[in-house]
Amino acid sequence: MPKTGTRDLTQGPIGRTLFVFALPIMAGNVLQSLNGSVNAIWVGRFLGEEALTATANANNIMFFLIGAVFGVGMAATILVGQAMGAKDTALAKRVIGTSATFFFCVSLAIAFAGMPLSRHILVWMSTPAESLALAEAYLRIIFMAVPFLYMFAFLSAILRGAGDTRTPFVFLMLAVVLDIVFNPLLIFGIGPFPEMGIAGSATSTLVANVVSLAAMLLWLRHRRHPLWISRHENSVYKPDLAILRALVVKGVPMGLQMIVISLAMIMMISMVNAYGVDYASAYGAALQLWTYIQMPAMAIGAACSSMAAQNVGAGRWDRVNATARTGTLFNFLMTGALIAPVILFDQTTLSLFLPEGSAAIEHGRHLNHIAVWSFLFFGVSFVVSGVVRATGAVIPPLVILGIAMWGIRIPFADLLQPALGIDAIWWSFPVSALCSMLMSLAYYRWGNWRKARMLEPDPEAVAVPSEVPAQAPSPVADQGTRA
To answer: What segment(s) does the record annotate as region Disordered (predicted)?
Structure first.
């Protein structure tokens, strides 16, 4: 690999390239989950239940804010990937300049609006009175961290589009290590640090992201990264309206997918809660395990999207199709490798989250035997959707997800409970995931996603057919008609 970490995803063996590219993404997901768990231990065990409740409420807001721009970040990844595949560095820098201006302005607006509104937001969320003051202190600092969180996420997105997952992982690891180290120092006032209590936990997140973002920028400048924007190129920060429109129009549907999933999960846990604490805690323990089981599919799907974007830009449709096939195979192998021990050692894995002898353990074993297989089907949908989105076809994956969640999963779980009891909820997971996979594969086979485009075509450009010969270069904007 070159010293910048960028990788030409239009060349080389598909399997090895995709696997190596996806590993840092998956490792980064694991790091973030472990970071959240460690921070929760410090707050919960040493500051009490009120403090843990406060951070849980505030973190829900932080995750929503990050999720709100997730789609725009994905759009930037695809645009940069297509430009790099087409060997159009100038276009890639225009995308980066417009995206950077967008993320910076939005993050500042959120930070300045959020800090004074923190208490009102928490009250609106019905935060318990005994945790309200703690949550406000925590959330105000989190809002201060938003610009750095957003810019770090933005830089990671464009580097992935350029074929570099190693650099975002290295600096994410730096942020996680700093967050873990500074948490106890700032919470308890160890050494020269002030004792800040719960505010110290939020401050450690702020400090970690400021340092990591600054270090990443310095590294990119020092290594003369091909996408580094020098002083004489500052004009690219002026928003390009065509690129800005693509970021919003294509990014919003991708972001809405997270909202569709989140709302569906709220509905599911509401139905489970009606059966009592044993079933609810069993479901909660299963969700903890599912967080890790779905990581390979999410990492492979994100890697497939970047890889497909570069090959779309290069007109390498043979490699786009091969990426989808290889990603699907990897999903079955890697997700299956995690499902197997969860089933074989279900008593042990569930006991990590439930008291010994709890009736919830047997409930958890039963629901896992039914529902955990759904992640094999979910992974196929995630991979296929990642590939088709790489052309700019973002609406069909959203529609398919909406049908699977709200047209199949929720009605199945709700309407069949009189006949199946709580098993209707558990069976709704594999049934909806299987339907989602079949719909995704059908759209991949017969849909018009190959004719989609991220940017409006240049009116002076000559139209090209949607199926470009394997070696023929294709301008990023010329992918045919809109899907």
So the answer is: 464-483
Whether 412 contacts 357, CB under 8 Å: no
Cβ neighbors of 145 (< 8 A, separation 6 or more) are 202, 205, 206, 209, 210
The yes-or-no verdict on residue 477 having pLDDT over 50 is no
* Residue % of the chain over a pLDDT of 90: 33
Q: What is the mean pLDDT of residues 121-125?
A: 80
Q: Enumerate residues 6+ apart whose C-beta is below 8 A from 476.
A: 79, 82, 83, 85, 86, 88, 91, 313, 454, 455
115 or 266, which is more confident: 115
φ, ψ of residue 89 to 5 degrees: the values are -65, -35
Q: Cβ distance 236 to 83 under 8 Å?
A: no
How far apart are the C-alpha atoms of 19 and 8, rounded to whole Å? 14
Q: What is the mean pLDDT of residues 426-447?
A: 95
CB 227 within 8 A of CB 158: yes
Residues 416, 411: Cα–Cα separation, whole Å: 8
Report for 54-63, 70-79, 314-323, 432-441: range of highest mean pLDDT: 432-441
Residue 67 burial (C-beta neighbours within 10 Å; 0-12, 13-18, 19+): middle
- pTM reported for the whole predicted model: 0.77
What six digits make up the tokens of 305?
A: 């999207």
d(CA 438, CA 455): 29
| Domain segments of the chain as ranges | 14-239, 253-457+464-471+477-481
- The answer to whether the beta carbons of residues 51 and 134 sit under 8 Å apart is yes
